[in-house]
Amino acid sequence: VSSLVSSAGPLLQLDMIDRPVRKQSIVQILQASLEGADIFAHQTDRDVAAEWIRCCVSATVVTSYNSRVYRIKQVHFDKDPSHTFMMYQRDQKEHMEISFAKYYEAFYHKTIANKYQPLLEAYPEK
């Protein structure tokens, strides 16, 4: 946004910034990139792990479950959807342990298709 002054008076210049949105998931992109390789062999295949990092780290994504924009910070190959975290339940005023897979099923009604995919750490874009 910038403002200019001309003989006709003040002018306001707006620049539109748009990003193309892909309809493919990260898993679909990796499957196309690795051409038939097992994209979940990241524990044993360094090339597969490197491709996960290349495709994901610093990528901007839009989630299908809440349509928010996130930037991927890191790929955690040591964690998968079965790993758990502590979640605070306001109604019961206590902490409970829940897996990432169960969390997405309970709160977003989404089932994680592959239980061996690595965990992507992402932060909301501002």
Overview of this protein structure:
With 126 residues, the protein is an alpha+beta fold. It has a single domain (22-124), classed as paz domain (Beta Complex). The protein has helices at residues 26-34, 46-56, 100-108; strands at residues 2-6, 9-13, 60-62, 69-76, 84-89, 94-99, 119-124. Helix 1 (26-34) crosses helix 2. The mean pLDDT is 84.
Radius of gyration: 20 Å
CATH architecture: Beta Complex
Strands of the largest sheet, in order across it?
A: 3-4-7
Q: Helix and strand string, N-terminal first? A: EEHHEEEEHE
Structure summary, number of beta strands:
7
CATH homologous superfamily descriptor: paz domain
Mean pLDDT: 84
Write the layout of secondary structure elements.
Blueprint: E1 2-6, E2 9-13, H1 26-34, H2 46-56, E3 60-62, E4 69-76, E5 84-89, E6 94-99, H3 100-108, E7 119-124
Antiparallel strand pairs: 1-2, 3-4, 4-7, 5-6
Helix pairs in contact: 1-2
Briefly summarize what is shown.
This protein is of the alpha+beta class.
Considering the chains and any ligands shown, give keywords for the structure:
flat, 7 strands, 23% helix, 126 residues, paz domain, two-stranded antiparallel sheet, alpha+beta, 3-stranded antiparallel sheet, 3 helices
